[in-house]
Design goal:
The chain is built from no helices and eleven strands. The strands form two sheets. Strands 2, 4, 5, 6, 9, 10 and 11 form a seven-stranded mixed beta sheet that branches. Strands 1-3-8-7 form a four-stranded antiparallel beta sheet, with no helix packed on it. It is 0% helix and 51% strand.
């Protein structure tokens, strides 16, 4: 499975961005999709995830501001980011996890989000 992330960029504090991640294969419909981010000097952390059935979970720091969604017909997952803060500056990575054996994990390339204060 190949994952292609897009949508990063520069935005002012309080602004919005929408990230997209397109998967190359139809396995998309069964995998859990997630967005992770890694800020300079910090470890990669989970931002949001969505299961094949649409259940979601979010990092506390983004609850109420970010929304993850998926379109199985387009093999695409989205991350709508509103009220962006300088603390959101990071490289954002798309992730796919197969919840069934052999439990593979795939990563997309990162997309940089920069927030100016």
């Amino acid at each position: 499975v190949q994952l292609q992330a897009s949508g990063g960029g520069l935005v002012q504090a309080g602004g919005s961005l929408r990230l997209s991640c397109a998967a190359s294969e139809s396995i998309f419909s069964i995998v859990t999709m997630g967005w992770y981010r890694q800020a300079p000097g910090k470890q990669r952390e989970l931002v949001a995830a969505i299961t094949s059935l649409g259940s979601t979970n979010y990092a506390d720091s983004v609850k109420g501001r970010f929304t993850i969604s998926r379109d199985n017909a387009r093999n695409t997952v989205y991350l709508q980011m509103n009220s962006l803060e300088p603390e959101d500056i990071a490289v954002y990575y798309c992730n796919a996890k197969n919840p069934y054996p052999p439990f593979q994990t795939w990563w997309g390339q990162g997309t940089l989000v920069t927030v100016s204060s």
